[in-house]
Amino acid sequence: MRLHKTDGIYEEVVSDSLNKQLASIDENLKYTEKIDPEEAPAILAEYTSKIIKQRLQMLQETKGELSEQIKLVNKLIEVVADDAADIMDEKVADQGEQLKALLLDNPITKVTKRKASDLIRPATSVADTSLFTGAGREPNMSSEINKEIASCDRIDMMVSFIRWSGVVLILDELRRFVESGKKLRVITTSYMGATELRAIEELSKLPNTEIKVSFDGDRTRLHAKVYIFHRESGYSTAYVGSSNLTAPAMTSGCEWNVKVTKSDLPEVFSKIEASYSGYWNSKEETNSLYSSSKASFSLLSTILALFASVNS
Question: Which of 81, 103, 115, 286 is 20 to 30 A from 248 (CA-CA)?
Answer without folding.
Answer: 286
